[in-house]
Amino acid sequence: MTSCSMVSLCSLRVASCGIASPAAQKLNTGISRLSFPKDFIFGTSSAAAQYEGAAAEGGRKPSIWDHWCTLPDKIDDGSNPSITMDQYHRYKEDVRLLSDLGVNAYRFSISWTRLFPDGRVNPEGLAYYNSLINSLLEHGIKPFITIYHWDLPQALQESMGGWTNKEIVDKYVEFADICFAAFGDRVKHWITFNEPCHSLKYCYAEGIWPPGVKSDTEVYIAGHNTLLAHAAAVKRYREKYQAKQGGKIGISLDGFWYEPVYQIPQDVAASYRALDFNLGWFLSPVVYGYYPETMRANVGGRLPHFTEEEARNLMGSIDFLGLNYYTSMYVKDSPSDIWQPAGYNTDMRAKTLFDVDGIPIGPKAYETSWLSIVPWGFYKLLNYIKKEYNNPTIFVTENGFNQVHAPYKDSMDDNERIQYLTGHYTNMAQAIRDGADVQGHFIWSFLDCWEWKSGYTNHFGLFYVDRNTQDRLPKKSAYWVKNFLKPDRGLILPSATPPLVQPLGKNVALAPAQAVQAF
Ligand code: BGC
Fold this sequence. Notes:
This protein is an alpha/beta fold and 519 residues long. It is built from 17 helices and 17 strands. The chain has an eight-stranded parallel beta barrel, surrounded by six helices. A hairpin with a 2-residue loop joins strand 10 and strand 11 (359-360). The chain starts with 40 loop residues before the first strand and ends in a 34-residue tail after the last helix. Bound molecules: beta-D-glucopyranose. Residues 47, 50, 194-195, 198, 254, 324, 398, 444, 451, 460 line the site of beta-D-glucopyranose (BGC). Residues 47, 50, 194-195, 198, 254, 324, 398, 444, 451, 460 line the site of beta-D-glucopyranose. Pfam families: Glyco_hydro_1 (PF00232). Keywords: Glycosidase, Hydrolase, Signal.
């Protein structure tokens, strides 16, 4: 890390000197820390494969992603996760930065192949996570741990076929048990899985993520085994650890909001199917113990069944829902898809769109980005979950904005990220006032990091990372967040503030006055 004395941009650089607050931060957004409950969690989010690096150090063994990146043309820029943000070596500095940012929580995941490679606990891995946890706690930052964020040991993929083999359930529980036993005295929030829908779709339906399977059936089998592993780990935690450790356990699911193109029964029904296939696939079993009816109807015999005991274990198996929200899409009924080959995407019989007749659902983060900025969709999704799933406690475990990769000087003035966060905080505050039990929010992401198939082509960080020096350089959004989190700053949103931005486009139910700007 470059020392402060060596850089002219000391106010912009972060080293041991902390984050200075330039005048540019005097943004009056009308939303502040005070718009949220006093004990609200404000954190940033990360994942081991995207942050740790040190892939071949400290006794760590390869994960499916390490292996996948050795194959040709799998990653957009040919990169791999062997170094990434080098958090394995730099965690102390990173914790100081987090503390300086003012967050009170940090979400990270445990690398299975670092802590428990080859079915034995690796003392160096254990020491690393203990130090990271202790360091966070010393700075008043609560660790939120994701037990599995997509980095299965390659050895388990090769020896037993990974998530499509039911025996993976026991392997996962063994690993989770080690995490609870080793860290549960200090860790009070556990997340069993990150975004199984998103990852399994790519891994087992589209075949663009490891292990690269394209199947209309295996995606549902892998999902089923993931759910069984979740339920079994929660059962273990509740029976063996929860009473004495006093923590909570949940799962992080990806949720898009799906806005019907037209307020006609067919499109409205299509939007509910899309919500079911995306969020309900996992949320319905962990709340109610069964798959959504739309999935059972459309997938038929390819969707596995839960035994009565499995359903009992699944029902109510979350103390909280981790919700990852990035964007929304339009959706319309697509019955013709029944003539296309079966598969996750066609089973839904709904077509998703980023725009209707050239009118986008929200501004794109950048031209080729998958992310449209749709804060009102966040509000709608939170409300939908409140109504459909018995108002669970929610921690928004990921929410963030991406920029295309650009040199340092072109990346720092990230006003759009500030607008994105402002819009999402505003909508989240409104959803809370309207009764949603949201207790925390984590920005994806703390640092610019390695983005799976996208490699380093786009970035979500509050901090730019110079990959030659590993310097962490705060973007304008980092200053904004720091300022936002000061308890005495900003304005409180009056509770009478009219709700939120409504969708653009051809939604016939909307009065023209509601089609306002996106933030
Ligand atoms: C994942 C993260 C990822 C982020 C941005 C989420 O789906 O959980 O690992 O980096 O999206 O693409």
